[in-house]
Amino acid sequence: MTKLKHLQSSYKPYDGIRVYCLNTSDTGYVMNFKVDLRDGTSIETMARDVLSPFTGRGYTVWADNAFVSVAICDWCRDNKINFAGTTRVTYGFPTCLIEEGLPQGQWKWAMSESGTLAAYWSDVGYVKLMSNWHNPVVDFVLRRVKGQADRVPRGAPSVGKDYNNGMGGTDLFDFMRGQYTTLRKSKKWWKTLFHWVLDSSMLNAWILYK
């Protein structure tokens, strides 16, 4: 019997269903997913479960700051998965790198003995990044600047540039799924989950057909 329940809050009678999803960055194809059963399983364990079928194959995975920790980076390195993305101080990002007032285009970095890179980059805002396969290499990104017609180059760590280019598969999937979704409003969680799986199956089939 499933233990899936809605998260209770003071603002809504329920907060929906969490699905941890792995998508290709170019098409949004659903590679794997796992439903949060609200049984106390940690996000780190959920991330490992989603990534487990792809160990030992040299895949590159980008993630947002809900998943990128020192522990996950080390686990992925041990299992031959290139893993990187934005992160949080509470996930092991070194606080000594944080500097308010850092000029745009500047960045600071540190690397662990195991080879995990942490980079603090001043872009549009301050960005905290971690990667288990990047080196602290200088690169640049193109950004719009007020008063100039063309985009101008801005200094960046290579992990920041690669993150901008590689991230977004799940957002693309959500966008395309929303165009022709079968979802109907319901207070029964299993119906919502069924329609999500149905939408995902149809989108995957269309991608394979194309």
Overview of the structural elements:
- This protein is an alpha+beta fold and 210 residues long.
- 28% of the residues lie in helices and 23% in strands.
- The protein contains five helices and nine strands.
- The strands form three sheets. It has a five-stranded mixed sheet, sandwiched between helices. A two-stranded antiparallel ribbon has the order 1-2. Strands 8-9 form a two-stranded antiparallel sheet.
- A hairpin with a 5-residue loop joins strand 5 and strand 6.
- Helix 1 packs parallel to helix 2.
- The longest helix is centred in the C-terminal third of the chain and has 21 residues.
- It is globular.
- The N terminus is likely disordered.
Describe the structure concisely for a colleague.
The chain is of the alpha+beta class. It contains 5 helices and 9 strands. The protein is 28% helix and 23% strand.
Q: What is the chain-wise order of helices and strands?
A: EEHEHEEEEEEHHH
Largest sheet features: 5 strands, mixed
Which structural class matches the secondary elements?
Answer: alpha+beta
Please state the oligomeric state of the protein chains shown.
single chain
Strand order of the largest sheet: 3-4-7-6-5
Strand content: 15-25%
The shape is: globular
Number of helices: 5
Mean pLDDT metric: 90
**Model regions low in confidence, pLDDT < 50 over at least 5 residues:** 1-8
Strand elements, count: 9
Q: Portion of residues in helices?
A: 25-40%
* Cα radius of gyration in angstroms: 19 Å
The separation of the N and C termini measures: 38 Å
